[in-house]
Structure formats: C-alpha cells, structure tokens
Amino acid sequence: MKLKKALLVVDVQNDFCPDGALAIPEGDKVVPLLNKYIKIFAKNKLPIFASRDWHPVKTKHFKDFGGSWPVHCIQNTKGAAFHPKLKLPKETILLYKGMDPGKDSYSCFQAEDQRGMSFSSILKLFAIKELYIGGLATDYCVRFSTHDALKRGFKVKLLMDGIKGVNLKPGDSQKAIREMVESGAKKTTLKDMPIDIYGKKLQCR
Ligand code: VGL
Ligand code: ZN
User: Fold this and answer.
1) pLDDT by residue (tens digit) across 12-43?
2) What b-and-e string marks burial along 179-200, b requiring 16 or more CB atoms within 10 Å of the CB?
3) 149-174 per-position pLDDT tens digit
4) Among 26-35, 138-147, 190-199, whose mean pLDDT is lowest?
5) Quick check: CB of 11 below 6 Å from ligand 1?
6) In 153-171, which positions are buried (b, 16+ CB within 10 angstroms) versus exposed (e)?
7) Is the pTM of this model over 0.85?
8) What residues are paired with 187 via a beta bridge?
9) How is 128-186 classified by DSSP, letter by letter?
10) Omega of the bond prior to 23 within 30 degrees of 0, cis?
11) 97 catalytic, yes or no?
C-alpha cells in the first residue's frame, strides 16, 4: 500500500547546535543530510514540516524556574532561529512548541502552526499516513514525537543519519532509538530512500 508521506524536521535551531545555549554535540552535522531529505520531499511535492522549540522567557522548562534546562530557544531570538544552513523551501509548514510557561512539552504533537492549528489537524487535512522524522534531539523531541506519532497510528521512518541526541546520561540516544524501534519505528538512511536522484521515483499517492 502506498501511504502519503511527510517530512518532519525537528528543532534544527542555533541553540541546539555547537556554541548554542543547549548545544548538542555535533548537532549541526544533521544539517547537510536533512537538506538532502528536504530536497527529495520538495521534488516529490510532499509536505515538509519544521518545528521550533519556542519558549517564553519564564517557563518551568528552565532550571531557574524548577525545570531541567538552561535558558534556550527564547521566542524571536537568534538562539531560536533555524540553523543558517538549513534550506527550508517557502512551502514548509512551520510548527512552534514549548510556549506554555507551566509545563515541559517535547512532542511535535503538542506543536501548532502560526495560526494555532495543531500538528495533528494539519496531518489530517493533508491525509498524511507516514512521517519521516529527523532533527534534534534524538532523546527528547524526536523520541516524544515518534512515540506520539506511533500511538496515533502513523507509520514512522527514523532518519538515522539526520538525528543527534543530548545524552544527558551517556547512552540516552541509543536507548531512545532502541525504544522507538521497539514501538514500531523503522530506521532509514538517505541511501535507502527510493528517490529520483538515484534513478527511482519516490512512490506515493
Ligand atoms: C528539547 C531539550 C529541551 C528538544 C527541547 O526539542 O529535543 N530538548 N527542550
Ligand atoms: Zn526546550
């Protein structure tokens, strides 16, 4: 069966890249790979979503207010901007998450577009059945988004060459990957993509 696919690029923002406020080791390494996935989806006229962690100045998500994290991805700051080398086409659907000052939210299923439409409503509108998920961080937003997607009945392809983790504890990312796969996510890499630049068209309704 051919399922309608979409790409979800998670939180590829300056603060999650080297020199950022919550730097993920080699976080920026995903950028050229994700740009290739973006090109494939754009060529095939399939939806591309890009989320941003988008926090208010005061939130329980931050250490200063009882949470786990240094201050990062404050709305409309350079730290919250996409990595400058990430090439998002103008049709990209932008998602925002983490605006609630009262709680942590890591999943893109708690994200919304600029008009306040939830990610799941948009997926429904486009009749998307399968999500290709990459970005940052493997052990947080990618993990929570993947589990939520699977719980809601979406198929998930995890972009193994397009994810990097925080690893607060060593091995967190490996554990996250193992759990995502156990829950039904399938691993994929760029060279597995049935893409036109490799001589085959991406099959899709
Ligand atoms: C994230 C840590 C803190 C994420 C967000 O999007 O993965 N991680 N805030
Ligand atoms: Zn955050």
Assistant:
1) 999 999 999 999 999 999 999 999 999 999 98
2) ebeeeebeebebeebebeeeee
3) 999 999 999 999 999 999 999 999 99
4) 190-199
5) yes
6) ebbbbbbebbbbbbbeeee
7) yes
8) 158
9) --EEEEEEE-IIIIIHHHHHHHHHTT-EEEEEEEEEE---SSTTHHHHHHHHHHHTT-E
10) no
11) yes
- Whose tokens are 């809601």? That residue is 152
Say whether 5 is catalytic: no
Q: Is the CB of 53 under 6 A from ligand 1?
A: yes
In the residue annotation, 141 being an active-site residue is answered as yes
Which residue of the set 17, 73, 108, 141 is catalytic?
141
Instruction: Give the Cβ contact number of residue 18 at 10 Å.
Output: 12
pLDDT tens by residue, 45-86: 899 999 999 999 999 999 999 999 999 999 999 999 999 999
